[in-house]
Amino acid sequence: QVQLVESGGGLVQAGGSLTLSCSASGINFSSKILAWYRQAPGKQRERVAFIGPSGQTSYDSSVKGRFTIARDNAKNTVHLQMKSLKPEDTATYYCNTFPTDGSWGQGTQVSVSS
Length: 114
Hints:
This protein is mostly beta strands and 114 residues long. The protein is 0% helix and 50% strand.
């Protein structure tokens, strides 16, 4: 059973930076596409970035150029570096595989004040 533990969220001012981390277990980590998702209050969960087993990346247009996803297969971790944060980035952020198997971690809250 996959277990995902996200960390690194917090409250920052617009223009600030945060780096999120996710530790995964129960999966063949190095072979999986990994992704960061977010869910803002009252909105559906959306995928913001993913990284393939060989390191290829893709970003949603809303975060491209500001967010960077990276993985460490030796440590079974995936990170999301977020820069130039905007109030609209406020959400609970989750990591997971892509596609998911339906199970989710607790997420980490990111709040960006204007």
